[in-house]
Amino acid sequence: MHVETAIQLWQDGERRVRAADPADRRLLERVVERIVGELRRRLGGPFTTQELTALYSAGTDWCFDVAVSAAPDDPRAWDAQTVGDAAFARYVREARDWAGGRRREPAEEDERGS
Question: pLDDT tens across 22-40, in order?
Answer without folding.
Answer: 989 999 999 999 999 999 9
